[in-house]
Amino acid sequence: MTDATPSTPWRRAVVTGGAGFLGSHLCEHLIEQGVAVDCVDNLSSGSRANVAHLVGRPGFRYYEQDVCADGAPDRLPGPYDLVLHFACPASPADYLRLPLQTLDCGSLGTRNMLAVAERDGARFLLASTSEVYGDPLVHPQREDYWGNVNPVGPRSVYDESKRFSEALVTAHVGAHGADAGIVRLFNTYGPRMRPLDGRAVPVFVCRALAGEPLPVAGDGSQTRSLCYVDDTVDGILLVAASRSVRPVNIGGTDEVTVRDIALRVVELARSRSRIEYVDRPADDPQRRRPDTTLARELLGWTPQVPWEEGIRRTIDHFAAARFGAPAPARPPASPNGDHPEPYGHPAPSRLPS
Questions:
Q1: Residue-range domains of the chain with CATH
Q2: What are the Pro residues biased-composition ranges (predicted)?
Q3: CA 7: distance to chain centroid?
Q4: What residues contact 75, with CB distance under 8 A and at least 6 apart?
Q5: How far apart are CA 276 and CA 274, in angstroms?
Q6: CA 20 vs CA 6, 89, 134: distances in Å
Q7: Chain-centre distance of CA 244, in angstroms?
Q8: Distance of alpha carbon 72 from alpha carbon 286, whole angstroms
Q9: CA nearest neighbour of 125 among 133, 134, 113
């Protein structure tokens, strides 16, 4: 973690989606800072393995339950100083598989967790997403940009779930004076992502380690701004501690094409994998980069881990899981040189974006 993390003003926090990729890192960091944590997850996309190392730690409690269910607030004992609502299928593979549950997380789940925060007088923070900007016509994306979103497209279950949850939080601030904030996250990646979950980094890393082709959508010119999970966690907790009620972008500032990400993964993994161009998903954003001026000026937050260093750490994590050791030594160069050559344009498949 970076030095930007604030001293924690909380005694007990509840983290929904706490057994997921990002939620588990939040649980871990809060426990390390001496904050007691209730981790809540229904395991629709999370895993107990992500928080197994926290079981038995002082202050850590795990609740396997659905935050969208009737009576969910009554099953969370509290009292809490901080409510982090991060429960929601976030990868394309998950929200396309669970469309109604995704919409429920943004509506019923958000309403239930706002009720918990109101009951305990806790600070509430909603995990939103760069997807609220859709395929943006403004670049980079500032918090006051309303977005360019298809409300009935294949990605709409996720996009509109988050847009509605933002509206619900904003309404609670206006109607009830809730101490509630919103953090819009851009392309977070790192250890504990699920292999092949439909997001670019884990798909590319797992394919490269296996020596398989890396599927790049379209011509790969679409851009992403990656943010390593440690930096994202720091930004989230700074927003939580700030009492800001405005949406705040948290994301990387280096804009990189998807093709360049794939090529760099192959190089850092010492792989002989090739790039395979495939059909581009509907409504896939062409450019994505946050304007993080507000986070920098309000919170003093800037990402500290360069994206290539974060990729290296992520490769080491997946390699250890696959081989029990860091990525294997690079094989001899092919007759055509060390760099993977793109080829083909096969039938459509589910792809990272």
A1: 12-324 (3.40.50.720)
A2: 343-353
A3: 23
A4: 63, 65
A5: 6
A6: 23, 9, 24
A7: 21
A8: 39
A9: 113
- 245 neighbors 219 (Cβ within 8 angstroms): no
**pLDDT tens sequence across 310-320:** 999 999 999 99
Task: Tell me, yes or no, if 158 is annotated catalytic.
Answer: yes
Per-residue pLDDT reduced to its tens digit, 321-332:
876 655 444 333
Q: Helix 200-210 crosses helix 258-268 at what angle (to 10 degrees)?
A: 40
Cα separation, 173 vs 347, whole angstroms: 48
Closest CA to 132 of 117, 121, 143, 120: 143
Of 62, 80, 133, 158, which is the active-site residue?
A: 158
DSSP string, 11-54: SEEEEETTTSHHHHHHHHHHHHTT-EEEEEE--SS--GGGGGGG
Whole-prediction pTM: 0.88
Q: Can you list the alpha helix ranges (DSSP code H) found in the chain?
A: 21-32, 92-97, 99-104, 110-120, 156-176, 200-210, 229-242, 258-268, 293-294, 307-323
Tell me how far apart the alpha carbons of residues 75 and 63 are, in angstroms, rounded to a whole number: 9
What does the alpha-carbon distance between residue 162 and residue 128 come to, in Å, rounded to a whole number? 6
